[in-house]
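Hello forum,

I keep getting stuck at the same step: I have a sequence, I want structure tokens, and every attempt I make locally crashes halfway through. Rather than fight my setup again tonight, could one of you with a working pipeline run this one for me? It's a single chain of 280 residues.
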Amino acid sequence: MAEKEVIKSIFAGKAGERPLFFMLGPCVIEDEATTLKTLEVLVRITGDLKVPFIFKSSYDKANRTSLESYRGPGLKDGLKILEKASRTFPEVPIVTDVHCRTEVGPVAEVVDVIQIPAFLSRQTNLIVEAALTGLPVNIKKGQFMSPRDMTHSVDKARSTGAEQIMITERGVSFGYNNLVVDFRALPLLRAFGYPVIFDATHSVQSPGGMGGKSGGDRKMARYLARAAAACGVDGFFMEVHPDPEHALCDGPNSLALTEVKDLLTEIIAIDSAVKGFHGN
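Reply #2:
Ran it on my machine without issues. Output:
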């Protein structure tokens, strides 16, 4: 699979000089129509704003709170939908997460970026297998890890010769059913030299906060995103859905499609201001 221009731009230059980019999409694939319609709208929004965009959605959410929770269409059917998304919008890179080594090979044939979920950010074999594909790997920092601990996860990927590595901050466990963001983590992670992404929607999640499923407060995502942009990051990860109230996964912390353009506009403005200062 040829490397797409968006991917090239993400790894060009050093921290503070790279173009701001966005990973956006539904938490999980619900059906082909919703996936493609959401992608179409996001392509139009990011095109209007002239910002690099990677589409995100999962074929399986293996870490759901309850056995009864919707997980997605599964590997085979999910990858068919992601493959159609890639054919429909060939300029847009696709990212999805993997949960075990056996998924990595089939996933690598379809997507442009492989994501390691936060709960699996210390799983050596999974990280190494993903890095061996030669694709960029986005490692989400575990809710239980300090920023400095991520150097070991990065080293696992680098052991294969991989250098196209991204690190995502998504909040830290704080007591029961709650996450907080320590914004000191962003410059600490950026010091590793790899692109750092802030996950604005998972950071407002309340894991297991609704009994058999996770809750969240999507209204707070805007404020955390503004703060992260002011600190200085390379990209933003946000889950979006046409109708979050009826989303089958992570609805409480997902943004509505109608909210996305305004929030991205704010983030871009803050990022531009920050890049006007030295030491960003």
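The radius of gyration is 17 Å. If your local run keeps crashing, start a new thread with the error log.
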